[in-house]
Amino acid sequence: MISVEEAIKIILGVTPKGNIEELPLAAVAGRVTASDWVTDADIPPFDRVMMDGVALKYEGINSGNVKFKISEIQRAGEEPKILTDENTCIEIMTGAVCPIGADTVIQYEQLTIVNGFCTFDTEKIRQGQNIQWKGRDKNKGEVVLKSGTLIGPAETGVAASIGQHRVKVKSLARVHIISTGDELVEIYTTPKPHQIRRSNVYALSHLLSTFLINAFTSHLGDDISEIKIGLQNALENSDVVIITGGVSKGKFDHVPDVLKELGVEKLFHKIAQKPGKPFWFGTKGDKVVFALPGNPVSSYLCAVRYILPWLRQSIGQDPFKSYTAILQGEFNYNPSLTHFLQVKLEWSDAGELLAIPQPGGGSGDYLNLVNADAFLEIPANSSGFAKDGMLFKTFPYREF
Amino acid sequence: MISVEEAIKIILGVTPKGNIEELPLAAVAGRVTASDWVTDADIPPFDRVMMDGVALKYEGINSGNVKFKISEIQRAGEEPKILTDENTCIEIMTGAVCPIGADTVIQYEQLTIVNGFCTFDTEKIRQGQNIQWKGRDKNKGEVVLKSGTLIGPAETGVAASIGQHRVKVKSLARVHIISTGDELVEIYTTPKPHQIRRSNVYALSHLLSTFLINAFTSHLGDDISEIKIGLQNALENSDVVIITGGVSKGKFDHVPDVLKELGVEKLFHKIAQKPGKPFWFGTKGDKVVFALPGNPVSSYLCAVRYILPWLRQSIGQDPFKSYTAILQGEFNYNPSLTHFLQVKLEWSDAGELLAIPQPGGGSGDYLNLVNADAFLEIPANSSGFAKDGMLFKTFPYREF
To answer: Taking CB atoms and an 8 Å cutoff, what residues of chain A touch B193?
Structure first.
């Protein structure tokens, strides 16, 4: 039995080869870039007018002019007009190119326009106001986004603006989730009195879908040859195989033996943690196998604490987000195991993250998962007592 | 010009009728339930064995027996066997039904098995251990999830376990996002020197997709009749119309006039905020129109601060999540406007949410949005100076 720290170290020590694919911009929301993004023009690409009003030469104001004739209109999307006379101005719209020869834009709010002439308080005008000069933010050929960045809505906007309409992104792992156990039946059937519905694969599929992975799922009974054929097929057709059930001490827990027979190397079996102790982890070439306990709370915890970090790392992201929360209330536990306590996360008005324990009925009570947002990790080898106000790492499994 | 508080109050005062639809479980990740979920059986549905080991009658231990003959094996998924003799036990697997007549399960870790007989330290055994009794967590017919709950992975697992394979959820709004402006061209073209690519609709579409809305998008030039036909069509075919550009003081800012002509009632135009001042909002029957400024930072802020809350409320969710953050550094601003400062959010090891200003090049510098995670709201009518360590509400626009 190894510690949580050793387990996560072994898991993150296994790195996949990391493929790349190119997709249309509309298909890469939430993915991770696999190339730097470079501007194909200056940003802004021209001297851009920032307010509706008039454009003029500041030297006209300097020369003492107080009244300027409006000579014409310059719309957004038009080629720039030319301003030669320091006594005239061009009416101009936000987003338009600043007319050639003009260097200052005065917004309507500062103008009085009568009979085609405009006046304003010359004291309030600064040369160059309301113009964003060409290349102010970036020059052509500059990097605006590094490879390895998660594509959020702002990144999508930037991609569109620089014409990055096809995007190289890191490929997601192909994942196969397999439930095992003769007691499990499909969700649209009514179980017999000694059966239950197969729910783990649904919870885990949804969890992976928040990571944009569309996992393939299947089921295997507790029969050695069935398990062997099923796992072999999964190993051949996926990068990551997740199994629930069949990894403990039971007479029909064939999964570890079959994996060994199929050439999957065991990297560990059992972690000093509650829940989720019988977790088995191994590899075959660049394939990764996570074999989780069948208990719904255990398999869910293992996916949140171990599989998601591995998947994040597999696309070059930080495996962990550090969410340190302040425990509200106290908690007794077995000091020889790292304990994962279900908590509801809340924000205080003082900018603090509070963790309210939702222990429910213990690790058998999977219904209780819906009452919490996260697992709070209370390390082993301490006193077996967690005090109110202590700080712990938390692993959220949904928005909070 | 109204305040941010007045604006949000007006927006959230408009409530849509709220339709409901029924979908397969695999299609409702992230949606909101529109009915209570009720168990169709006790949970657990039978006296469930929690460990691999043997099941026996505790009265056998009470009678002083120290050695129990293993009479047979009970697998998970099998009908329960019957135990009559207090001197024998049944080998039993996790997930199996507890044999009829047995009341205690002793795990392999506590057993010594020799020649078909098992012994153990009787002092360590509690009656009823390792059995989850039928109905311990819920009885048949009890509500396990309320209508109005966001369906996360844990909820999906619960749905599967109770056979909720089709799920009633609140319908999402049909949204049409329209860009306007003659200066805009498609993202796969090379703009002329006075043009730019249309990026706002891409950023806003992605933002709404994080809310599971697949928005329809289109573009209209600065021509009154084109705008009229386009907006009329959008109003007829969607619940929410989002327009970017054409709402300011320019000569070709036709959007407010056309909306009026189409019978859309203006509820406000202009908010005392920076960026995003020219924001226009109105309704026509149960249709809602958000007309945003064309500036990318402005339109993005308005969507995060006003449209997402409205959409959340439209499916019965809390419009706001309260994220109070601690400003790191100081900031000067115009005290007559509410200022939205771009910030990067970070967690301290003390469980605090820290907001690090990323002002960039101001509201024209949309590239800077990728350097931040959130807008920090600094209210108007204060000193115009925000001190280091002050607390402010933040509106995140991506995971942080």
So the answer is: 45-46, 79, 97
